[in-house]
Amino acid sequence: MSNRLPPFVPAAGARVLVVGDVILDRYLHGDTTRISPEAPVPVVRVGSTEERPGGAANVALNLRALGIDVELAGVTGADAAADNLSDMLRAAGIACRFLRRDGFPTITKVRVLSQHQQLLRLDYEAALPPADDGALLDQCGGFAGFDCVVLSDYAKGGLARVGDFIRLARSRGVPVLVDPKGADFARYAGATVLTPNLKEFEQVVGACADEGEIGRKGEQLRRELDLDGLLVTRGERGMTLVQAAGPKVLHVAARAHEVYDVTGAGDTVIATLAAAMVSGHVLPEAMQYANAAAGLVVEKLGTASATVEELNARLAGKRGARRGVLTRPELEAEIDRARRRGERIAMTNGCFDILHAGHVRFLEQARALGDRLVVAVNDDASVQRLKGAGRPINAHADRMAVLAALGSVDWVIGFSEDTPRDLIAGVLPDVLAKGGDYRPDQVAGAAEVAAAGGQVVILPLVPGRSSTGVIDAAARSAGRTGRK
């Protein structure tokens, strides 16, 4: 079938409810250079910790990234992990309908990574109380006001009575998309669309020798479960859609160019499918949008999402490097791709509290030292430790957004430590730039960069230009005019 699609435009006012197993994904990043004397395992010197919403929460984030209004319902513990999840999701514009339970830990997956390779995963979870799935159904308010319901089943217990969710939603005329788990697909009978991966599909119908057999067995399963559609994701071999209306079986080839991490790809598929359907697209079109979005997220590290801009760029065949504010796994993936293209990486860091002409000139000079420029930015707490009470003037997210808008800056990343030494040691830029009267050996991360064969360059500051000077001038002006 044709892969030519119009740009994706999210429908204004469309609302989706995601229900399922809510997970906190925690990533520990560090370097490993030796084997432990206690056991034959690598020693990882942890440099940074990152948390992201996972499971059903990642589905919700993917929907929000595509411009869809979304709410999330799930069971969590009454703990700090649930607080962190709630804070991250609300900051993304996602309303949470969490059932917090004492004595039950929020499901947390801890991944230890070095050089963007996963070395170990630790899972914290416990069985849900039997009554919680019924309480979670009540929490959904009869699905009133939603254009679609997405059920994200990670087999953690939140959807033990998944059939009740499906029957109630369909009785209200609300489409239900399900990402299934396990070998008992009868639990999902009556859903609108089911989105198993090939391994999950073959657990139910048996091994499939080719696309023809996937289509035949898929149609039989679709009829047995009374589904409108069955979308089987097949990794690097693409996707197969079996549907009741129109052409019975459709196949599309995968769109990924480089696969770094398949974590969360299924979340992206069902989220994009839902986003496209509530935006007026039929299933075959929705599948193609989902296929393109999945190709984007497997090129990133860890649980990730695709934005409307990225999706439309991929549909248009554009392969330019992603720019802007990135997480550490995203930055590492972009740098890896840049180096494969033979590009030199320059890096600098600072508070950049009030951006002025001196900053702009310095960043232009730093960018000229390489093909790509990474700017690491102190978070608010570390700025306060460095600059004192009353600083920063501008919040961390605002400072990073302003830097990301500069033509000289490719990638912006935050850090919480007093110095970015560990971050720089992880990136190992070709050129590390710093402004002022430092000696190279006084620059955080310089030793690590030099040891890897990189350069440390000290650039002159523009005289009379500083954030402190701007703040002092503003205070004097306010004093003269009597402003508070």
pLDDT < 50 stretches: none
CATH class of the largest domain: Alpha Beta
Mean pLDDT: 88
Report the span from N to C terminus.
65 Å
Short description:
By secondary structure, this protein is an alpha/beta fold. It is built from 16 helices and 19 strands.
Which labels suit this protein?
2 domains, 6-stranded parallel sheet, Rossmann fold, elongated, UDP-N-acetylmuramoyl-L-alanine:D-glutamate ligase, alpha/beta, 484 residues
Walk me through the structure:
The chain has helices at residues 56-65, 80-91, 132-139, 162-171, 198-205, 211-225, 265-278, 283-297, 308-315, 328-340, 357-367, 380-387, 396-404, 421-427, 446-451, 467-481; strands spanning 15-20, 22-35, 42-55, 69-77, 95-101, 107-114, 117-124, 148-152, 176-179, 193-194, 229-233, 239-243, 249-252, 324-325, 345-350, 372-378, 411-415, 431-435, 455-459. It is α/β, with parallel strands linked by helices. It has 2 domains: 15-315, UDP-N-acetylmuramoyl-L-alanine:D-glutamate ligase, CATH 3.40.1190.20; 324-473, 3-Layer(aba) Sandwich (Rossmann fold), CATH 3.40.50.620. It has a 9-stranded mixed sheet, with helices on both faces. Helix 1 (56-65) crosses helix 7 and helix 8 packs across helix 9. The model has no long low-confidence stretch (mean pLDDT 88).
